[in-house]
Specification:
Length: 252
């Protein structure tokens, strides 16, 4: 079993280290991650310039590769032959949950999506932490990631399906269990912040409060709010199949 580990927070992110250490218990691991933070980068691919890949090491001394490309580039490079053939792609551990509409923004989730495009199972892992915590303990999330990956290796996934796993920030013995969920409804509280540079020219930040969500038990948001690990099966097909018949009735 050859496992590719990547993320969107950069090669030296603590969540990547925890995920790598967890996956090393399951098989051979190659780490290939961006050399900088690509959070909220979405599903992007670099086509207009060459990509560089350099050797490095994680803080525990484990050898790794880093690139100046996006998270999706990491997966594409690996699956196109940069490294030995890959059996499983795991991404994360993201330091904040990726729930509801977050999945379209998340480099963590969309790099798992890139794995599906390449014909390899993909797993994305995110940890619901308080954004004000200066240090996070990723070891419980790493253990959860190991259990999920181990189950996927044993059971397999249907073609075209990848998993987005969100983990509550709790000690392992306080996590209530696993819940298979659907995407919840994220409530964004974004605000436009306008400022001026020293030359009087305006510039803008997209700011605002931390997003919330509707606490419905069978959703990703509801599950982690209740202390459960949320596992949401996702797919590339975004077609609203139930609305096709409605649109066919329009006079085109």
């Amino acid at each position: 079993m050859h496992i590719l580990v990547t993320n969107d927070d950069g090669i030296h992110a603590p969540g990547l280290l925890a995920l790598t250490q967890a996956m090393r218990k399951l098989g051979d691991v190659t780490v290939l991650a961006p050399n900088k933070n690509w959070s909220a980068s979405g599903h992007s691919k670099t086509l207009g310039r060459p990509l560089r890949v350099d050797g490095t090491t994680l803080s525990d001394g484990f050898p790794a590769l880093s690139t100046d490309g996006a998270p999706s580039d990491c997966v594409a490079l690996a699956l196109l032959g940069l490294i030995d053939p890959v059996d499983l792609v795991v991404t994360g551990i993201n330091p904040h949950a990726n729930i509801g509409d977050d999945v379209t923004y998340s480099g963590t989730v969309t790099s798992a999506m890139e794995a599906i495009i390449g014909g390899v199972p993909g797993l994305a892992f995110s940890l619901e932490t308080d954004r004000n915590l200066s240090e996070h303990d990723y070891s419980p999330a790493g253990e959860i990631a190991r259990r999920v990956a181990e189950k996927v290796i044993a059971e397999g996934l249907p073609k075209g399906i990848f998993l987005s796993t969100n983990i509550p920030y709790l000690p392992i013995d306080k996590i209530k269990g696993f819940r298979i969920t659907r995407q919840g409804e994220r409530i964004y509280l974004d605000e436009l912040v306008t400022r001026e540079d020293p030359f009087g020219r305006p510039y803008y930040w997209i700011g605002g409060k931390h997003p919330t969500g509707k606490m419905i038990s069978d959703t990703d948001f509801g599950a982690i709010n209740e202390g459960f690990v949320s596992i949401t099966p996702l797919q590339l097909d975004l077609t609203a199949h139930s609305k096709i018949s409605l649109l066919k009735k329009w006079d085109w």
